[in-house]
Write a structure and sequence with these properties.
about 425 residues, alpha+beta, six-stranded antiparallel sheet, 6 helices, about 20% helix, rod-shaped
């Protein structure tokens, strides 16, 4: 009796396990019938989004040596295939898997490669599953190139989802089995393939083979294609100089200017005309760095001197532009203020009967002034002390004092002031006028 009950229980469990997914399939099939058009639109939208994602993937760094991991890639592909098919079988006990994964590449693979039992086959591809393994390689079509000077865009299509491999060389005999052959692999599976070849040489012919591998590991290469990178544009435009300025010092001239393109810079300078460029006797300053903003400093110049200058700018193509000759005048050295009074020497008083001639010398140009008195010492600061002044600036001084009394002793002091009004006063000298007989 117990065995009979046990058999009935096992049978009910088995029926429940089989019936539960079938109920789920019926519900899902009903939804699919009502929403067929909506699912179709959703699938088209997701295919467009997948294409955009693939193109974004192309902008990432290229894997330049995929062959060294070919065994690992093959195992990974096999494991991936098994996992994807396992997920599809798992739908028997997880009806929500299909709804969760939607129209992903994983579903695309399941559609093409997995054997699906029961109603799952209809859910995924609307037909009976086949036990025939996928042994058909992707069909490559529409191989195109879009070359620039140093890079090229390679595009092609396949009739099923597959990865993207490009081999290229300047030799038409491309050895795709060699690890040293230039190659790039992208393992995102797509039908629209795009790879950018970078760091190419301008004006050069390259030969290309593309290859695509599907989820089952079936691989097909294309025939050899070719393209020629573009010829570099020839620069025959001379640089344009503008905004030339100079800033002068007593022994320096700073020259600045702008150019409309990156150029090296040089300034020739001379104190005579014409300025002969590249002559061994013509001085210059230069800067080998290419820039659009230029500033050069000329040093070691003479003060208060006119210099003639010529600017030279050379672009990366060797086009040279020179300016017209222009000039700049260095500043005068600043003069220290004169605070030194003249030095008075050779003071002499020569008497007459009613006159006396006073003479002296100074070490710089200065005025002449004589104070005199019959009393000693002569007070040059008193307003009552008589004097005679000559404002001419000389170094040899002579003043005749007249109207003196005969046979009289007179005392004399002299003063001299230079152009900066530094004043020197001599010591006192005396003499006696002669008698009137």
């Amino acid at each position: 009796m117990k065995n009979h009950i046990k058999s009935i229980t096992i049978g009910l469990v088995a029926v429940a396990l089989v019936a539960s997914p079938l109920v789920g399939f019926a519900k899902d099939n009903g939804k699919n019938d009502n929403n067929g058009r909506g699912e179709q639109k959703k699938e088209q939208k997701q295919e467009k989004e997948q294409k955009k994602n693939n193109e974004r993937e192309d902008e990432r760094d290229e894997d330049k040596n995929p062959n060294k991991n070919s065994v690992a890639n093959s195992r990974s592909s096999q494991n991936n295939s098994e996992n994807l098919c396992f997920k599809a079988y798992g739908h028997l006990i997880a009806p929500g898997w299909l709804k969760k994964n939607g129209n992903t590449i994983a579903r695309k693979y399941i559609v093409q490669n997995c054997w699906l039992p029961f109603g799952i086959n209809k859910k995924f591809r609307g037909q009976n599953a086949s036990t025939t393994p996928d042994v058909t390689a992707p069909v490559i079509s529409n191989l195109t190139f879009n070359p620039a000077k140093t890079q090229t865009e390679v595009r092609w299509k396949t009739d099923e989802y597959s990865n993207s491999i490009v081999y290229w060389s300047t030799n038409p005999s491309i050895d795709t089995s060699s690890s040293i052959t230039n190659q790039i692999t992208k393992n995102n599976f797509t039908k629209d393939h795009r790879i950018i070849l970078k760091n190419l040489t301008a004006s050069t012919t390259y030969y290309v083979i593309v290859r695509s591998r599907d989820y089952s590991g079936n691989t097909s290469p294309s025939s050899v294609g070719s393209f020629t990178t573009k010829v570099p544009s020839i620069d025959n435009q001379f640089p344009i100089l503008s905004n030339i300025i100079t800033v002068v010092g007593t022994s320096t001239i700073q020259v600045g200017w702008n150019t409309n393109e990156n150029t090296t810079d040089r300034v020739y300078y001379s104190t005579i005309l014409p300025v002969v460029l590249n002559a061994s006797t013509t001085s210059f300053v230069s800067n080998a760095s290419s820039t659009k903003t230029h500033l050069l400093l000329i040093t070691g110049l003479n003060p208060n001197t006119t210099y003639y200058l010529v600017i030279e700018s050379t672009d990366t193509a060797g086009n040279v532009t020179t300016s017209a000759t222009f000039s700049a005048h260095t500043n005068i050295l600043p003069v220290a203020p004169d605070v030194t009074a003249p030095v008075i020497t050779s003071l002499l008083a020569t008497p007459g009967s009613s006159t006396t001639t006073v003479s002296w010398t100074t070490d710089e140009l200065a005025t002449s002034k004589v104070f005199y008195s019959t009393a000693s010492p002569v007070d040059v600061g008193a307003t009552t002390t008589p004097f005679i002044l000559n404002g001419s600036l000389v170094t040899s001084h002579s003043i005749q004092v007249t109207g003196l009394s005969t046979s009289t002793l007179y005392y004399f002091k002299v003063q001299s002031a230079d152009a900066s009004v530094n004043t020197a006063t001599s010591g006192e000298v005396s003499t006696t006028t002669m008698s009137g007989i």
